[in-house]
Write a structure and sequence with these properties.
It is built from 10 helices and 3 strands, in the order ααααααββαααβα. Helix 4 crosses helix 6.
Length: about 260
């Protein structure tokens, strides 16, 4: 798996605890009748992150998946152009997602200084207390995060509380179906390479490079990213897998490629 698609898998695994944390913050601020800037800023960062995810999913469904499913037989060049344009938009959204995740981590590093809020979390929701501390600890310096084994251990520890039971073989079946789907497009893109719009190819390259550039601010060590797949909501799995497959196009399969 390429670095960029590995990172997306990591970030997608955080959806459930982040949504839960957002609800908790909203209730806390309402109950305390406070407008504490740092806590509200964290809530806003979470909402931005979740909004980017939903927009990415919407684009993936309407501009990529549905377009492929509508093809009966050999796709036309305009259909290939539309699909590639849609997926390049998804890649751009995921570069935004990486930036938003880093901002979230920084916000958590600031929130842990608020003793009243952290004590409230510790007393009422130990999972979220641990999650905020985890997100704070992975923020290592200005604009960068470091993901290590502790990140995975958090999800393993709280998996029964955070996630519906998903068997590994079920995830594998989903991934297999997505790859077959991707192979269908890759085959026709290669066949019609000379007919594809130069503007679409340049946009695709530009957005993929933006994704790889954002990935440079993420450090991953001592963690098997594939183990986190079971914690990614199934509706988001297609985008992570398609990212890996489509990054092979146009000679940009390696994130170090320039």
């Amino acid at each position: 798996m390429s670095q960029a698609s590995s990172y997306i898998t990591i970030f997608l695994s955080s959806i459930n605890p982040l949504a839960r944390l957002k609800e908790k913050i909203d209730r806390y601020l309402q109950k305390k009748k406070t407008k504490e800037r740092i806590i509200r800023a964290l809530a806003d960062e979470i909402q931005e992150y979740l909004d980017i995810l939903e927009r990415s999913l919407k684009i993936s469904k309407t501009e990529v998946v549905s377009k492929v499913k509508s093809i009966d037989g050999i796709p036309t060049t305009p259909q290939i152009n539309i699909i590639l344009n849609g997926f390049s938009e998804v890649m751009l959204k995921y570069s935004e997602l990486i930036r938003a995740f880093i901002k979230l981590s920084k916000a958590c590093s600031e929130v842990i200084e608020n003793q009243a809020f952290m004590e409230n979390l510790k007393e009422t929701d130990s999972l979220l207390y641990d999650f905020v501390n985890l997100m704070s600890n992975i923020y290592v310096k200005e604009g960068k995060v470091k993901i290590n084994g502790r990140y995975y251990r958090f999800f393993k520890l709280y998996e029964d509380e955070l996630f519906d039971k998903v068997k590994i073989n079920e995830v594998d079946e989903i991934i297999k179906g997505i790859r077959e789907f991707a192979d269908k497009i890759l085959f026709w893109v290669k066949k019609k390479r000379r007919q594809i719009s130069g503007g679409i190819i340049r946009k695709y390259r530009r957005n993929l490079k933006a994704l790889y550039a954002a990935s440079k601010d993420v450090i991953v060590a001592d963690i098997e990213v594939s183990k986190l797949r079971v914690y990614v909501p199934t509706k988001f799995l297609p985008i992570a897998i398609l990212l890996k497959e489509y990054s092979k196009l146009f000679g940009l399969g390696n994130p170090t490629h320039t």
